[in-house]
Amino acid sequence: MPTPHEIAHLTLRQRCTSLGIPTLSFDASGAIEPTLPASLADRIVSTPPFVEPLVAISSSWAGQPAPELVEVFTGCYAAPIPVEERRKRLGYSVGLAFGPSMLARPEFFEACRAAGVDHQQAYAALSASATHTRASAEQLRSFLRWMVMDVAQSADHTDAADVLTTELAASYEQLDAVYDIGRAIGDLTHPPRFVASACKRLRAALSFDFVMARFADDPAVPPALRGVTILDGRSPIRHDDDNEEIAARSLGLLMRLRPQREWTIFEPGTDSPLTPASQTLAQPLIRDGRVVGALIAGDKSGRDPAISSHDTQLIHASGGFVNAFLENSALYLEQKQLFLGTIQAVTAAIDAKDHYTRGHSERVSHLAELLARAVGLSERDIEWARISGLVHDVGKIGVPEAVLTKPGLLTDEEFRAIRLHPEIGHRILRTVLPLAPALPGVLSHHERYDGRGYPNGLRGEEIPLLARIIGLADTFDAMSSNRSYRSAMTRDKVLAEITRCAGSQFDPKLAPLFVAMDFSGFDALIAKHATDAPTYQAAA
Ligand SMILES: [Fe+2]
Prior knowledge:
Blueprint: H1 4-18, E1 23-27, E2 32-33, H2 40-45, H3 48-58, E3 70-73, E4 76-85, E5 88-98, H4 106-115, H5 119-126, H6 134-184, H7 191-205, E6 208-215, E7 229-233, H8 243-255, E8 264-266, E9 280-287, E10 290-300, H9 309-351, H10 360-375, H11 379-391, H12 401-404, H13 412-419, H14 421-429, H15 439-443, H16 465-480, H17 491-500, H18 510-515, H19 520-531, H20 533-539
Antiparallel strand pairs: 1-2, 1-5, 3-4, 4-5, 6-7, 6-10, 8-9, 9-10
Bound molecules: fe (ii) ion (FE2).
Fe (ii) ion is lined by residues 392-393, 421, 445-446, 474.
């Protein structure tokens, strides 16, 4: 891109050419700058007879705000016009005005010869414009001076407008990134996903080769992010892509941050723990007055590799959102634990109505979680299997205790009362909106694969997968524990029974996965609930 000086000189040259005035260009020190001759007159004045006397005096222009008109030799006037940008002198454009006597001077003959121009032809071409006197040449100088100032000023303005436009576009992009990150903090279900997308968005808005988030192994950090490093972009370790090394170096950087809300810039060299070759920008993430993580950006590329105030502002604003996200996550986990704790207490109280079913819901919950994992469900669905297992028998609250605990055979009416519990449970929990994904397991856990179950006689895959999982876990626990009407069956017998009933009572694909599970956690729960007995008996 031409500088304002070049633009001013080109414009002046164009206009002078159209007026028959040749020009020369000098740099700030007074040395001549080569330019392509635009006219016959330009070629003539670019020769030593004109250039040498001008070069001899041009170094004196540097100290003058407006260098004066010079008569180079008789009838040859030179008007040096300074070109400046923000008060800095960049050089001079020199316009040459000729009087009639110049055309008779030996210097003119000599110049024509040096330029390889026929003297007669040059005389004919220039005589019409060689009419200047000192006074008119002085007027020309003033005219050229104002023109160059106008052109340079307008080029300055265009330059400033370009810079402003670029900065505005960058600011918009950065504002958009902060807005995107802010909008995403509402989704607390998957913290690593939020942090990864924040790093990606930041990197897209800035010119860093990498943006990463590093979290300490600290209880104030959501479990899914504890001790975690999330990197977007190129590895900061240029010749070594070792994740452990990146994790160790970023932890070293984390240890050096102070619990203030401002960013830190690590300068290249030994001071920079991650990338010794370039600056690293780190925004600490604070919880309870401690540094629990950092957003880190480094290896800036592009036109300006130095970290700018745009970079620091954006990473600071994004750090604010990640901090808010950490706080919200902690609250969310606290509420979730409270919610699950309440459910656990309620279901334990229901199980305790019959001391034979003590701990049943917790064990079914544990088995449902194991089976959901064996099936390969997502972490979210595994959690719903766990919750559904916990609440699957909540409807027993509506079944008389005398029926639940009756030893021996039940009458038809008592049997009907018991078989109502899935629908009662479903009706109760339907009003608890956040539990909606657990409801299929509550309503349909007594359906059978062959369609002979209740309450709706669903068959095969009509039965929701969650209900098929809970059904298996429920039956396994019932067979494995003592009941009022029979003693517990041995493990081998229970597993054989499940295998035998695959395809009739149970989903034939789930049954083999179930019998292959590790039951040590289940046995630990049986032992725990046996020792809990006195408490529950007292409550019942
Ligand atoms: Fe049940």
